[in-house]
Amino acid sequence: MTDLARLWDTAWGLLEAALSDRAAPARLPVLATAGLEGGASARVVVLRGADRAARRLEIHADAASLKAAELARDPAATLLVWDPARQMQLRLQVRVGLLAGDPGRWQAVPELARAAYGGTPPPGTPLADPADWHADPVITRHLALICDLQALEILHLEAQPHRRALFRAETGWQGGWIAP
Q1: Do residues 65 and 45 make contact, with C-beta atoms less than 8 angstroms apart?
Q2: CB–CB of 27/63 below 8 Å?
Q3: Could you tell me the residue ranges of all domains in the chain?
Q4: Contact in structure between 155 and 117 (CB atoms under 8 Å)
Q5: pTM, entire model
Q6: What's 4-178's CATH class?
Q7: Within the chain, what is the greatest distance between any pair of CA atoms?
């Protein structure tokens, strides 16, 4: 792909497809945050929202999770998406706002998935046996992570030579080519 506008559209198309297609590559991005004890922390999350016009993405978390504590301390994060069919990587630098207990968002969470937001003991607590954890879904533990896009880097490996582009908020989203 040699057209920056088309590459931008392709990237957003991947993100938007994840909202309706459970098999879409962007449905399960990796979220990387600054760890509480130094280093980085990364985990797979579910993409719950993608708003191209607002340059905003949304994922959800348990308010008692380590990722919630990490983002409360440092809201800078990166989402990473890999599309094997297109041989395309998206690296999205975001600033994350935390929105707890929103009734509209809670209603949109499927009943079965609500178990992820609440539970005893809280996420990350050591257990003697997996049966020692008990689901207790509660709206106050549901946290929307509102991810405002700061930069979008696209690496396209299918193209020969490989192509890499960077779009940044500070430049009004005017993309530019960078060395792969």
Answers
A1: no
A2: no
A3: 4-178
A4: no
A5: 0.93
A6: mainly beta
A7: 55
Question: Do 144 and 99 touch, CB atoms closer than 8 A?
Answer: yes
Q: Which helix (H) or strand (E) holds 29?
A: none
β-bridge partners, 56: 51, 148
Q: Would you state the pLDDT for residue 38?
A: 83
Under DSSP, is residue 55 helix (H, G, I), strand (E, B) or coil? coil
Task: With beta carbons less than 8 A apart as the criterion, state whether 167 and 152 touch.
Answer: yes
Pick from 157, 150, 177: nearest CA to 166: 177
CB-count exposure of residue 27 (10 Å: 0-12, 13-18, 19+): buried
Tens-place pLDDT, residues 90-103: 999 999 999 999 99
CB neighbours (10 Å) of residue 118?
Answer: 19
Q: Pairing state of beta strands 163-168 and 118-120?
A: unpaired
Q: How far, in Å, CA of 47 to CA of 32, rounded?
A: 14
**Lookup: tokens for 118:** 């609440």
